[in-house]
């Protein structure tokens, strides 16, 4: 019992649980005041809890496309950048990029096809591209320079697909793995399918937005991990809509 109490207390004192705690304290001290204020605070507490709960993340998380085994080894693996970290004269792939790289590297070791690293520099030309940051990691893991091709101009998923499509056609590639975060696959497949309708694209989820395990006690506590997962899910659904409308109208 002590363990669960400690976990629950820690969750309510950590971000974002501390926000719920503060709102509940305010609700306690304003209970005798106007009902509209009480109702607003109660709604805010419930809303914050729902946005930061693992069980909600598991309900909202979509089913990802399964990785289909191609009939023959694909000619390339496309890895989409997922952000980078900058500071102290260093430029490193962010956590999502690292997860995508790890998955792509595992696939690459099976047949060692060409790795196409896609990701520009959305913050200006003076900052190294995401593709170059990913290349440095793969080079350290032992991938030869000639097995990597960089696409350094894209800033969005749509541009990822457009720029990579040009390189894929130039090389005569007819099949490829598309590696990105699971929650990002729906949008990425829509864009890549539009620009490369003649190419066999095999989607690969590098990681889920949230744990896919059965519900546990932890899933009913507010957590930053669940909040980030839910934010990702909403972000991707909102990002998918303009792409879908763009191709329909």
UniProtKB/TrEMBL annotation:
Domain DUF218 span(s) in chain numbering: 75-239
Transmembrane segments: 12-31, 40-60
Domain of life of the organism encoding this protein: Bacteria
CDD domains with a match to the protein in the record: YdcF-like
Keyword annotations from UniProtKB, A to Z: Membrane, Transmembrane, Transmembrane helix
Gene3D superfamilies per record: HUPs
Pfam families in the cross-refs: DUF218
Name of the protein this chain belongs to: YdcF family protein
């Amino acid at each position: 019992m002590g363990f669960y109490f400690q976990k629950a207390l820690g969750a309510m004192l950590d971000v974002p649980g501390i926000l719920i705690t503060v709102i509940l304290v305010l609700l306690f001290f304003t209970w005798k005041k106007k009902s509209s204020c009480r109702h607003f605070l109660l709604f805010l507490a419930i809303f914050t809890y729902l946005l930061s709960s693992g069980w909600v993340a598991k309900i909202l998380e979509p089913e990802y496309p399964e990785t289909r085994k191609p009939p023959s080894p694909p000619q390339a693996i496309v890895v989409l950048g997922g952000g980078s970290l900058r500071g102290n004269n260093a430029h490193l792939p962010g956590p999502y990029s690292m997860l995508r790289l790890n998955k792509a590297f595992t696939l690459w070791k099976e047949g060692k096809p060409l790795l196409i690293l896609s990701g520009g520099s959305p913050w200006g030309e003076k900052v190294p591209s995401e593709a170059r940051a990913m290349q440095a990691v793969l080079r350290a893991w032992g991938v030869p320079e000639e097995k990597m091709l960089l696409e350094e101009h894209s800033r969005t998923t749509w541009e990822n697909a457009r720029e990579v499509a040009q390189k894929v056609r130039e090389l005569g590639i007819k099949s490829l793995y598309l590696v990105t975060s699971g929650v990002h696959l729906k949008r990425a497949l829509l864009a890549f399918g539009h620009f490369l309708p003649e190419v066999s694209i095999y989607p690969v989820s590098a990681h889920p937005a949230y744990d896919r395990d059965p519900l546990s006690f932890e899933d009913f506590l507010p957590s930053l991990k669940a909040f980030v997962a839910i934010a990702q899910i909403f972000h991707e659904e909102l990002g998918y809509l303009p792409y879908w409308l763009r191709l329909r109208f």
